[in-house]
Amino acid sequence: MSKLSLGTHPFLLGFDQLERLVERTAKSENGYPPYNIEQVGENIFRITLAVAGFAEEDLSLTVEDRQLVVRGKQTEDGDDRVFLHRGIAARQFQRTFLLADGMEVSGAALANGLLHVDLSRSVPERIVQSIEIKKG
What we know:
Layout: H1 18-27, E1 35-41, E2 44-50, E3 59-64, E4 67-72, E5 93-98, E6 103-111, E7 114-121
Antiparallel strand pairs: 1-2, 2-7, 3-4, 4-5, 6-7
């Protein structure tokens, strides 16, 4: 007996890429930077990332193939600083969020070490289509 995967179930026609998207998203989890996702309205969402130490010019947001990609890369101030203890890492990161159809990035703001990315979902109009059945 063969096992059916999620993307090959007979009731999920056209969703063959769903399983690959889930696997790709699960592999991208690395824990840094920490983030929250909240629903702030019926079709409005906000992703908040903790990016302490990053300036606006150190951050970039792009939407690539239905994925919101947040990248951060800090520039070193120079080699003249001597740290007795360095607990705040200046490391680069890339955090990816898969966006559903109809999700749009409506804006982003950086305040108090938190990057807020606002998303909105457009509700598609409902279309009922009748299909003619021809005699064969």
